[in-house]
Amino acid sequence: MASFGALGRALSHRDARLFFGASLTSWTGLWVHRIAVSWLAWEMTRSAFWVGMVAFSDLAPAVIFSPIAGAVADRMDRVRLTMLSQAVIACEAALVALMVASGEMSIGVLLALEALSGTAASFSQPARQSLMPGLVPRAELPAAVACNSLCFNVARFIGPAIAGPLIATGGVVPAVLFNSASYVIACATMPLLRVDPDQRRGHAPEGSVWAEAAAGFRYAGRHPGIGPLLAFAAIAAVLMRGVQEILPPFVERLFGRGPDGLALLTASIGVGALFAGLWVANRGRLEGATALAVGAVGVQALVTIGFVATGAFPFALLCAAAMGAAGSVHGISTQTLVQNAADPAMRGRVLSLWGLITRACPALGALALGGLGEVLGLRLPTILAMLLALGVLAWGVRRLPRMAGALEAREAPVAAR
Questions:
Q1: In this predicted structure, what is the pLDDT of residue 204?
Q2: What gap in Å lies between CA 361 and CA 168, rounded to an integer?
Q3: Cβ atoms of 92 and 321 closer than 8 Å
Q4: What ranges do the domains of the chain cover?
Q5: d(CA 136, CA 116)
Q6: CA dihedral defined by 352, 354, 359, 363, rounded to 10 degrees?
Q7: Whole-angstrom Cα distance, residue 26 to residue 183?
Q8: For the chain, what is the largest distance between any 2 Cα atoms, rounded to a whole number of angstroms?
Q9: Domain 6-407, what fold?
Q10: Which of 11, 159, 173, 253 is the most core-located residue (most Cβ within 10 A)?
Q11: What b-and-e string marks burial along 52-81, b requiring 16 or more CB atoms within 10 Å of the CB?
Q12: Cα 333–Cα 83–Cα 172 angle in degrees, nearest 5
């Protein structure tokens, strides 16, 4: 472990190993599931719009539920909330598999079930991530946050490697059942965590859930670093992340490939994210993280243009790896900064806003890109979105010094509630 520097120190703690092992297991199942249902939607409809709608249905519930989920995570046992939400996701995946196997699945039913899973995930995300400061000492929190993202991106590599052969040989059902089993395993590990009681629950209820959710929005908006950084990340996610959410139409229309091509592209994104995440994790410091969060958006926009502009699949794989690397650097840096700067009593609510960004904003981007792709083709709308993202980058660069000063301080400033 020592050879991995900051990352090794974070993983030297028993609870951290249990937590991240469960994360890797569940997220591997998640990526298998995402590929399976997106391919199922494509097979049923042959429409980029409906593939985008499936992604939208999974991710969009965060718009409604993430702020509420953050308030709930700040006032109840976060371990129990995580277990409950993971159990719902496991049951949803089992139901999808059952309906596909029985021939009863339709695109409408699939949308409804994915919305249910997305709602459960909206509650799981802030509860799980709020536990991280209770797993490692504060000095190792940046590495722990990076390790969390690494687990997600290792899963993004492993999941497609499993999904491709499963779908090619057995269809969608085994792939979705794999996800159900992975969440059952992750849920079963949560009671094994020995988390300090102060970190399991944020605070005693101070008012209604709605009032506390609103307080979370006000806190983030007034913070000189958290508010601008989350706004920057949200706009960038709407413009750029839609491509990764509706890969099947790109695979078939631009490159003439099938499930094997989809698995290779998704795995390439995961490989890039993995190596970039390892680099960020082993930095082990906050200094410069704001510049990384902002600059990575520019890199991702440029390589996404390269991805859609080419017809050469090998070059597209390289661009996909670079997309994953830039996205990983941006995501790890942003989440680390937010974790560091947030008041502990507000952590769940602030992280729920990050969850809102990572789930709802890609969903909006996928829906818009899928709809425009049916009318204008996939290349032109994607390139226009990336040019807009470069404009957002310019705004972020102008705000960079002030954001860095507020987010990278050892004792970050706390805005009034």
A1: 59
A2: 31
A3: no
A4: 6-407
A5: 32
A6: 120
A7: 5
A8: 57
A9: Growth Hormone; Chain: A; (1.20.1250)
A10: 159
A11: bbbbbbbbbbbbebbbbbbbbbbbbebbeb
A12: 85
